[in-house]
Specification:
Length: about 475
């Protein structure tokens, strides 16, 4: 029996197992809810850790390491390996939203809730606000950002759509990111359209509830599916199956009206997120701050340099010598928004050139070319979040000499993957080799721009300008 056949059978059984063991999965979800709530709440009741606190002797640092060092980077990685199984099987926020929806008002979902711009706005808003309050460092900030999101998820569940996950489908801040990354997964719930049609005649069908409201019959990939397994073997037409990790991006391409999704990719994941990860180590940020401070002093405007705001607006922990003045906080926001806008515009311009090389302007083709950058964007998020992992492991005395080569190896792999996807996409549109090469080159140059930002963060800036770090720098 071939390996492919074996893996197909194993996956089909795994999908059916998920369908048959809802009770076990719900029990698991409640365990994760309890664990998540403890990590969110208990550290806020303890004093802030001092400089001697370590992962193994301080619960706050332990929670910080688990949330930002392990949980988030590996949830992102799981999207690329298993699709959105995290969402459907373990996510505490989704589980709570679905749970509250069972007892709620079951109202119809209004138009504003279904707005396609939410994934971008929610991701950008959470990322920027997280940096304003230093979410990676302080338990109160974690409680406001993550706890606030969980409470909002429960309220949405209480108001709209019984037994569904309206929050996850429309408002979750990472929904758009997961939607994009899960398209790279080598497994999916495959729909056999003929078997589905035959099922109308052959036997009685037990209806199933798809919590994230995926139109299952027409499902073509992982983007919307939470891999909960409830529909496995439904109408003898749905099977968890292996596939090429390139298939969904190259063959299915972007859904209709996905301009916001492209904005999330180019301006959000490859823009705002890069700005958020890198401002603390950028010497250009220091130069900008010095220039602004000098200008303010010369004009005798002192309050932005002297005043601070409460910790839930801008970081404010005087006992830990970590206070953003109004100037600091404003510059952090301006820097992140500025990097997001600059990266988004540069990448869009390059992809527009590639689109132009393939013929008359076509929105869908532009969005399709942008999708080639998903591996690089995902790798960037992983590298940015794992920078926190590294900075938390450093004081523990862990040998980290392998980290830098691993980072550049991952980046090289992501570039290669993007290159292969771009080749598959341009082949679908190009009339000749000339068009093909030009369009592919536009994606390759976009990759080089993104690589440059990571090179700067992981060593380049120390070459460009040795020794400068912003006050409060996290990964220097
Ligand atoms: S289509 Fe819906 S029910 Fe089926 S696995 Fe995906 S999320 Fe679950």
């Amino acid at each position: 029996m071939s390996v492919t056949l074996l893996s197909s059978r194993f996956l089909a059984r795994a999908g059916d197992w998920l369908a048959r063991h809802r009770g076990t999965l719900i029990g698991l979800q409640w365990l994760v809810v309890v664990f998540y709530a403890s990590l969110l709440i208990i550290p806020t009741l303890l004093p802030l850790p001092d400089s001697d606190a370590r992962i193994l002797n301080n619960l706050t640092v332990f929670a910080q390491f688990l949330f930002w060092g392990i949980w988030w980077p590996f949830v992102l990685l799981s999207m690329v390996l298993l699709g959105r199984a995290w969402c459907g099987v373990l996510c505490p926020e989704g589980a709570l939203s679905e749970f509250t929806s069972r007892f709620g008002l079951n109202r119809a979902m209004p138009h504003w809730l279904r707005w396609s711009g939410w994934p971008f706005v929610a991701f950008a808003g959470t990322t920027i606000y997280g940096q304003m309050v230093s979410v990676y460092q302080y338990p109160q900030a974690v409680l406001v950002v993550l706890g606030g999101s969980t409470v909002a998820a429960m309220i949405i569940g209480l108001i709209y759509a019984r037994d569904r996950r309206a929050w996850c489908k429309y408002l979750c801040p990472v929904n758009g990111v997961f939607n994009l990354l899960s398209r790279l997964a080598p497994i999916h719930f495959r729909v056999d359209v003929d078997a589905w049609k035959n099922s109308y005649h052959s036997h009685k069908v037990i209806p199933i509830v798809c919590a994230p409201m995926v139109p299952i019959r027409n499902m073509q990939g992982n983007a919307e599916c939470h891999m909960c397994g409830r529909c496995s073997s439904h109408r003898d037409a749905i099977t968890l199956s292996p596939r090429s990790p390139n298939a969904e991006i190259v063959r299915v391409g972007p859904p209709k009206e996905s301009m916001w999704q492209t904005a999330l990719l180019l301006f959000g994941m490859l823009g705002i997120a890069i700005g958020a990860f890198q401002w603390t180590v950028s010497p250009w940020m220091v130069t900008l701050k010095q220039a602004c401070a000098e200008w303010l002093i010369n004009h005798d405007i002192m309050w932005p340099l002297e005043k601070s705001l409460p910790w839930y607006v801008f970081t404010n922990y005087p006992l830990h010598n970590d206070v953003f003045t109004i100037l600091d906080g404003t510059l952090v926001v301006a820097w992140i928004v500025g990097v997001g806008a600059l990266m988004g515009c540069v990448l869009s311009a390059l992809l527009a050139l590639g689109n132009g090389a393939l013929g008359k302007w076509d929105n869908k083709r532009f969005q399709h070319l942008a999708l080639a950058l998903v591996p690089l964007a995902g790798c960037g998020l992983f590298l940015g979040l794992s920078a926190t992992t590294v900075s938390l492991l450093r004081p523990e005395g862990v040998n980290l000499t392998w980290v830098q080569p691993l980072r550049f190896t991952l980046l090289a792999g992501a570039n290669l993957w993007t290159g292969v996807l771009a080749l598959g996409i341009v082949r679908r549109y190009a009339a000749g080799n000339g068009q093909r090469v030009l369009a592919w080159l536009s994606v390759a140059i976009a990759c080089a721009v993104v690589d440059l930002t990571w090179w700067l963060m992981f060593g380049g800036w120390t070459v460009v300008q040795w020794g400068h770090c912003m006050p409060g720098a996290r990964v220097c």
